[in-house]
């Protein structure tokens, strides 16, 4: 048997609906026989009548509705059709869900699924990685699963968490990533994972960039250079300890993210490592992100806009030379 | 006799008189609110309240009516000018005093202030500032109740004519109708959004004309007339409870105060102050009570004194209470402690 | 005879027949669009287009009519299913082919694709995906023209029944009415938003009922009937141009394709396919032309051949053109070079 | 004569309206005799009839309208009543204004004014600093003036810039900051300013935190410790060169910002300095931001939530000890 990242997301939701009658799914086109723009809810409306509901094109109200339902004890999962459209719901996510516990002592257990990241030909409005907007504000847990196993267990955990979770699933991984089976358990939420051990350089990354980074690590291994790759799994909370421990072993840090370059997860990792582990560093920490322009449509441009094994390798090589 | 509501879209026959008891009860909430908010305003002027004070002067009738028909299990999501409704719904004055005065013991524990308060566990949602955002949240609560098989409940939420223009209001209203939840939306056109008059806010003849476009049932009411407010809002709540489509009630009044107590409202024109909707609903209700002899002068005075005493009591209590201290504060934006991000 | 539009809110007398020349011109835009979009779909199936292909099959009559009445100086802000209107407005086929095929010479230079194109300098705005966002942008253009003292212009923008539920649409419509700009909003109810049927989108009887609540004038039209489309949209454009309030036209059709060419649309029910609004507007127009003998068979064939040749030509040209290359790209999101952030 | 930060903003707008008939102002309550929630447009509607327009409570459409007007050659200034409400307009700002030049080659010269930052008693929804959300996305210039002079000249420059500008004006500075006169010229946009020279430590900051930082610098000067204070002025573009040059002089870096701690301007500065000036640093770079919770209403909590001279001094002292 083989299961994709996308199927894992579907299976997690099936399990959640099966095991917990507080769970329902709300989003555009998730219901009927259709099962969502990416089929992440395929078959679920039929299997769980009345619990997988099509929403109007009203992202603000979709999240508002979920917040209300959560207040009433439900565990809603909101599917954005593309992460990019969550800009319309951002106010409800940041200012309503994100502040509610602080204000009232009552947490809001909603999970907002954001089909994120680039695929070729998707252009400026269907390719965005928005984790850094959500992580910047207080009150949210922001997940960025990079593997089939994490896609599955972390989504289950997301719904179990009493606080609002922004779950960034990567569209490129939907079909490209396969596993043999679904795990029964994952690492605890908030723990980063050493995806590959190494001693010469630490790459800290998450989501689709994990795989580009692992490719680079394999390539370098042929030359006897061992890159340690840390998969953050959640960018908030961010597991500074695991990152620091890795940098302590390697002395070198490269952060890789697919989102825009100003601020965001890679800058945050560097700020933490340099604050707490300055003496551990043998060279200047580096980062690589997408370019500071909207995400281009054409594959030629798109593949140059985001980091790739090639550009990561280049940076890594420079870093190892220092 | 008590004047009945005017209904714009549907003409219904029904009782034209609210029961006197209900009228008097509502009046007492109005009165208490007026006394309380006058006190808050004076505390503000005296520099004893930090931030702003926002009162519902002139809107007490409509607001009281909003609270009067809600029962246990119902949801109330009030906004800025809803003290009377909040009180009628069951919010103790001490909660308000504590929130305004920043007492650690208030429902918001000094973390949020003034009108930004609620007890969601008891059905009173805590508004965020962004106007319109609470409508879909109310819909969500009602939807969840439906999921759980509860019946006979309603949710009532309020908005100003200004807030009606936000995208969130539109999306929330539409979803309410799609999901056919028992929502009552009471929109009070007090003719200004802060300093902005109606003609820079919307261009339809009457905001109640929005109802049909969502599949709501729409009604208008003279917000200066308590009996009409009770009649129309009572009717809307009843219909929502009975499973009719979501209800929109558009009330007409004039805001008889500044936007907040910092605002002298000098932009409010003399002309508009002479409009019938500019009457003070509290005085109108008092006149009805006196004219119809629903309560004697002594009773009225007793009520006023009682309100004053309650208000003084709440304020005095809250004023004695400790303010929150940064050192003792639990600086955690999420409830699950092991997931708190440890930012160096 | 050509069937006239049904108007829901206002009944007006007027010419019931569009002039034949106009009808035939519109038909030719429809035809060219159909041929072109069939070609795009087949390129997509052949793997020659990256991303998606979104066609207006079944909506060509309404879309063509949108483009037909706009003049130089007018503004057109089309959405996904508006090829016919774009062409009628003046967009050359080569722009479309270049955008779909990612040619560096296209108006979007490979930076954006498919329907996300425009030439704002020539009055055709370039849509962003977020539905409803272009309405207020169109209002802004019109407002600026007003500021500058221009007269006699209009702006026309389109939306689906799904996009009507977005907050941006609400805010944009309301602002149009507040500012009294000459806007025509053509909302096409093709009975689905992607896979979602009307009953999960809105709950009013007819979306034209929204008009009154904004202070728009509202009309409905049978989108399968080209003459009606020309009549109603022509009328709306005329009224807007003459200074009447903003106009809402709600057209009824069925989307006769998938949401995009990747979508087999198997969720579209057989029942709805039997509805009168499910007819193919192109076939209906052809039948009118044949029945009324507006053009002979030979002419029709000639038009079809001409359309095919134009389409082949545009596609062949674009296919020969160079793709953008990353190394030659100017990676700058802002125009003022000295202000570009140099991020290490 | 003495002029406040707020008056400077008003004067800049008066000048803009006077000198350039493409300019108009659009926002809630900016018109009539009222002149805005903070009076930043006081009197302008009367002086410039038809050019200072009240908007409905429709932030998305306010910015959309401005974009359209800009396309038609106007230079709109949009006033948000509070920065916090720009969350409703974020989609138009990021996805429409921010992408337009890249997509179409036509820039969108709008200026969005955000009354930003905390004042006591304002609470979670009237106190936010949102520069980091806007700077993260491509296509925008993000200004954060800290002085009366900059408030004035930078607003004039903002309107002159052909690209969209998010102009973050700090509400605390409105009345607290005074200057003797308005300048005729300012530093070029994109240049940071050495607000105070020093040799022992560089504090990089912007907006209201400049003044807290300067207070600390004065205090330390009494002890013979000289702090150099860099006022970024714009967080995007961010003047890395000036910051690096300062760090080259001092060897120590502390970044101070009022917004939330995850990601954002302070992390970005650290990532840049460590990438390009790692060898310049004698100690681990540090940062101080607001706490990671919504902004509290009560003054006791509020003043502990944001950085203050006291907490900055503490951090600075630690850093100087290293
Ligand atoms: C989305 C949003 N924009 C701006 C504001 C700032 N604001 C607070 S109250 C107010 C006026 C509200 O007018 P209205 O809705 O008519 O209510 P009223 O104050 O008249 O009761 C404004 C603009 C806000 N709260 N939310
Ligand atoms: C705000 C927003 N949310 C979601 C989407 C994704 N989306 C693109 S087209 C579409 C359906 C649109 O339906 P409708 O408005 O009826 O237009 P139609 O496709 O039927 O012509 C959706 C949901 C979007 N573009 N914008
Ligand atoms: Mg009002
Ligand atoms: Mg549709």
Helix content of chain B: 40-55%
Enter the CATH topology name of the largest domain in chain A.
Rossmann fold
Shape of chain A: globular
Integer-rounded radius of gyration of chain A = 19 Å
Structural class of chain B: alpha/beta
Query: Could you give the order of the helices and strands of chain B?
Result: HHEHHHEHEEEHEHEHHH
Radius of gyration of chain B: 20 Å
Q: What portion of residues of chain A belong to β-strands?
A: 15-25%
What is the total number of structural domains of chain B? Answer: 1
* Spatial arrangement of strands, main beta sheet of chain B: 1-2-3-7-6
Strand content of chain B: 5-15%
Small-molecule components bound: thiamine diphosphate, magnesium ion
Overall structural class of chain A, as computed from helix and strand content, comes to alpha/beta
CATH superfamily of chain B: Thiamin diphosphate (ThDP)-binding fold, Pyr/PP domains
Encode the helix/strand succession of chain A as letters: EHEHEHEHEHEHEHEEEHEEHEHEHH
Shape of chain B: globular
Count of runs of 4 or more consecutive helical residues of chain A: 12
Number of domains of chain A: 2
